[in-house]
Specification:
Blueprint: H1 3-16, H2 29-38, H3 44-57, H4 61-65, H5 69-75, H6 82-100, H7 108-111, H8 119-128, H9 139-147, H10 157-167, H11 173-186, H12 205-224
Helix pairs in contact: 1-11, 2-8, 5-6, 9-11
């Protein structure tokens, strides 16, 4: 895909979602890290409901370690995989106390060493908490990137990230990450994308297919009447 098409995609998504942002409620890097860890296979909306009380009860890494694991599990019970996430939260808190003076490290390489923190989580934290340009690839970013041709259909998550890093200007990485999420979450949905009103239908392979299928279906319906 040439630079002109990439610019067209970025500009159109930018017009649709100029104020796209991280929707996980947090007030510092530590809270953001916990929130992103909890968000795996879970909606931001559900996480925010849980962290509203969670972040009042626990404000420091020491707080999370001062309660039995079972109590923390109950506090996040409504979140998927809560048992495993509770274990990772306590392990993470222990590690940042022992190795990072109780602070979330700012280096990507140190972040991914934390329990429950993968590449995506680390990218979200460094970009949103520390202002380091990064593109975190979640399900929305992956789906949209492949549909619009910003990545290949069979690319792995890491390959999608690398493809976007090559195509998108460095200073737009974080902004583009948020806008692609909003585009995928509120417009180009997994099951019912709004292809009929999409300004990017001209560059979307799947969108064109969906519209052709819909057109053919209508034609058949007319003929059978």
């Amino acid at each position: 895909m040439n630079k002109t098409k990439v610019r067209h995609i970025l500009d159109e998504i930018g017009k649709m979602f100029p104020d796209a942002h991280c929707e996980l409620t947090h007030s510092n890097p530590f809270e953001l890290t916990i929130a992103v860890l909890l968000s795996a296979q879970c909606t931001d909306e559900t996480v925010n409901k849980v962290t509203k009380s969670l972040f009042r009860k626990y404000t420091t890494p020491e707080d999370y370690l001062a309660v039995p694991l079972e109590e923390l599990e109950q506090d996040i019970r409504s979140i998927g995989l809560y048992r495993n996430k509770a274990k990772n939260i306590q392990k993470l808190c222990q590690l940042i106390i022992e190795k990072h003076n109780g602070q979330i490290p700012q280096e990507h390489s140190q972040l991914v060493e934390l329990p429950g923190v993968g590449r995506k989580t680390a990218n979200v934290v460094i970009s949103n908490a520390f202002g380091v340009p990064a593109i975190a690839v979640d399900t929305h970013v992956e789906r949209v990137s492949k549909r619009l041709g910003l990545a290949k259909a069979d690319d792995s998550v890491l390959e999608v990230e690398k493809s976007l890093m090559k195509k998108v200007p460095l200073e737009e990485w974080t902004q583009t990450h948020h806008r692609l999420i909003f585009f995928g979450r509120y417009h180009c949905k997994a099951q019912n994308p709004q292809c009929d009103i999409c300004p990017l239908l001209d560059v979307c392979r799947e969108g064109k297919k969906r519209m052709n299928v819909a057109k053919n279906r209508k034609t058949k319906e007319v003929k059978t009447r």
